[in-house]
Amino acid sequence: MEDVAMRINGAEVKASVDPRVSLLDMLRETLGMSGTKKGCNQGACGACTVLADGERILSCLALAVQYAGREITTVEGLAGEDGPHPLQQAFIDNDGFQCGYCTPGQLCSAVGMAAEAARGVPSYVSQDLTADEVVLDHDEVRERMSGNLCRCGAHNGIVAAITATYGAAR
What we know:
By secondary structure, the protein is of the alpha+beta class. It has two domains: 2-77, Ubiquitin-like (UB roll), CATH 3.10.20; 86-166, DNA polymerase, domain 1 (Orthogonal Bundle). It contains five helices and five strands. It has helices spanning 23-30, 86-93, 103-118, 138-144, 155-166; strands at 2-8, 11-17, 49-52, 55-58, 71-73. It has a five-stranded mixed β-sheet, sandwiched between helices. Strand 1 and strand 2 form a beta hairpin. The longest helix is centred in the middle third of the chain and has 16 residues, at 103-118. The radius of gyration is 16 Å and the shape is globular.
């Protein structure tokens, strides 16, 4: 067992885990934080997406010990004292979920994606790879969120919610 200390959703957390335990399993099984979902457990669906120091990662592929000393944000950490995160409210307003299983990963991924775009990180569909600012239009959002799957058909609502919050439609 190895002691792992990190900051999760603004709180200092310390847990004793096997060095082979994924961050996802530490969150869910050791810490009882059930918001982050286990989908494929192979890094293909994005349901387990969390933010590590503001960057999106697949927690099923990350060993908990790799993230010792880092700031982890899960879906539980997105809302503020004054209510839901603006993106969470946009998911409600735009019917961005049906079953809701992928929603935590979609939310964390979109927050990380917006930060990438704000830094000028291009995607496969970016027209100007040297631009300092990326406009999150329909095509950019769909491309950048392609690693997060929705199996129940809420994809159009998800894209609408993200675009309403961060994109060209604002």
